[in-house]
Amino acid sequence: MQITRFTDLGLRVLMYLAARPEAMATIPEIAQQFDISRNHLVKVVHRLGQLQLIATTRGKGGGMALARAPGEYRLGDVLRQLEDNPTLIDCASPPCVIRPGCQLKAALDDALQAFFSRLDQYTLEDVLRPPTGASLITLRERAG
After folding, report:
1. How buried is 131 (Cβ within 10 angstroms: 0-12 exposed, 13-18 middle, 19+ buried)?
2. Tens of pLDDT along 112-129?
3. Per-residue pLDDT tens digits for 26-72
4. What is the rounded distance in angstroms from the CA atom of residue 114 to the CA atom of residue 104?
5. Taking the model in full, what pTM does it have?
């Protein structure tokens, strides 16, 4: 499975925020640190806020922070939400002629569930273990 660029950016934002959960971050800051489009990042941050994965504050002194402790974010759950009903193949569009008797979709759906279940064993806190967390903290300090 390959995750979308949108999901990739969403995970990076969460990791960036988790590196210093006590400090707010801004869209321009993250866009600059990751060298990504501010406009695309706005969409990602908006979605993270809708999903209540981050808390956002508008205005002077505003920004974003994690909504919960890093250990409460299961990676499989985050990916399921950001990918928005992921499937590996779509047998309906265009309609597949072997669909009525085909076992491929069932096998791929089973494998996809195993992928997410495996990711559920990891939290955001887990992926911040050295050296990743230290690198992100350095990145945040450089921005500040």
Report:
1. exposed
2. 999 999 999 999 999 999
3. 999 999 999 999 999 999 999 999 999 999 998 888 899 999 999 99
4. 15
5. 0.90
Q: Show the tokens assigned to 125.
A: 């806190």
Nearest C-alpha neighbor of 52 from the set 38, 31, 73, 36: 73
Give the residue numbers spanning the domain of 33.
Answer: 5-143
DSSP 22-90: TS-B-HHHHHHHHT--HHHHHHHHHHHHHTTSEEEE-STT-EEEESS-GGG-BHHHHHHHHHTS--S--
- The CATH number linked to 94 is 1.10.10.10
Rounded to 5 degrees, what angle do the CA atoms 14, 17, 21 make? 130
